[in-house]
Amino acid sequence: MTLQMTSDERAVRQWWRTSIIDMKPGQIAFRGNAIEDLIGNVSFPQMIWLMVRGDLPSDAQARLFEAALVAGVDHGPQAPSIAAARMAATCGVDLNNAMATAVNMLGDVHGGAGEQCAELYYDIAVRMDAGASLNDAVRDGLDSWCETYGKIVSGFGHRFHKPVDPRAPRLMQLVRDAAAEGTVSGRFADIGEEVQAELGRQRGGRPIAMNIDGATAVIFCELGFPAPLSRGLFCLSRSVGILAHAWEQMGQGGRNKGPMPPNYLPFYEDRNDDT
After folding, report:
1. What 3-state class would DSSP assign to 200?
2. Where are the stretches annotated Disordered (predicted)?
3. Is 133 among the domain residues?
4. Is residue 2 part of a domain?
């Protein structure tokens, strides 16, 4: 016999609505796939794709997606989020607190460049769909970007890696290989490389690096991820490095470590000093 729900019971059950998980006692299914069928049969990158997209990627799509995730895991303690994780670890907090401290620093300036770059690529693609050539679409897209955000173009240039970010060429080669196999179109690889070339021309011929954000944005766009997911996926990727550094720091010890050794003090700026 099927029991009819009252309006109050229906309201309670529909307070949260999700197509991600169907969970009841003795049953767990993600996007219609029983958990026992997924365990041991899909990789973690495939599971991420399933959860956010609703379907499973092909093996070739999953390999390209995984490459982007692997490339962004860490960039050392000079990255503010990694430094924050290590400082938090010396303050006596647990691993999850240290990780949360770091992830919460991944904002527009540090961590958001991939999303912004994907927005640029998608804007250029829309211009091409409207009939503009690749070159014209890139120039117009960059002009629009700079009018809105300023001269720094997210995804290009790097304070350490000049003129090449060693991660980008490898990722772009994987995209080209995937395009040759028919896994992706290669359209956004063309767009990303033309943006890089145009920025070089605007700099008087001086080369500029496509950085990790520019390269992973190419991959996420090729695979059809909406731009905002680029940031979320970067957070997942960088969380691996954040976890590793927080754990390492806990093993090294140290108490209340700040951003620089205690024998170095911040410069005091006397606003009343006219000299």
Report:
1. helix
2. 253-275
3. yes
4. no
Count, residues in the chain: 275
Is the domain of 106 the same as that of 178? yes
The model's pLDDT over 124-165, given as tens digits with 9 standing for 90+, comes to: 999 999 999 999 999 999 999 999 988 899 999 877 778 888
The DSSP string of 72-128 is: TS---TTSHHHHHHHHHHTTT--HHHHHHHHHTT-BTTTB-HHHHHHHHHHHHHHHH
Burial class of residue 119 in the structure, from the number of CB atoms within 10 Å of its CB (0-12 exposed, 13-18 middle, 19+ buried): buried
Residue 215 lies in a domain: yes
Asked if 188 contacts 125 with a C-beta cutoff of 8 angstroms, the reply is: yes
Neighbours of 144 (CB within 10 A): 14
Which residues neighbour 181 within 8 Å (Cβ) at sequence distance 6 or greater?
A: 60
Low-confidence ranges of the chain (pLDDT < 50): 1
184 in any annotated domain: yes
The angle, 0 to 180 degrees and rounded to 10, between the axes of the packed helices 113-129 and 134-149 is: 140
Total domain count, the chain: 2
Question: CB atoms < 10 A from the CB of 244, how many?
Answer: 14
Domain with 33, as residue range(s), is 19-56
Query: 161-173 burial, b if ≥16 CB within 10 A, otherwise e?
Result: eeeebebbeebbe
> Which pLDDT tens digit goes with each residue over 66-105?
999 999 999 989 899 999 999 999 999 999 999 999 999 9
Contact between residue 219 and residue 45 where contact means Cβ atoms under 8 Å apart? no
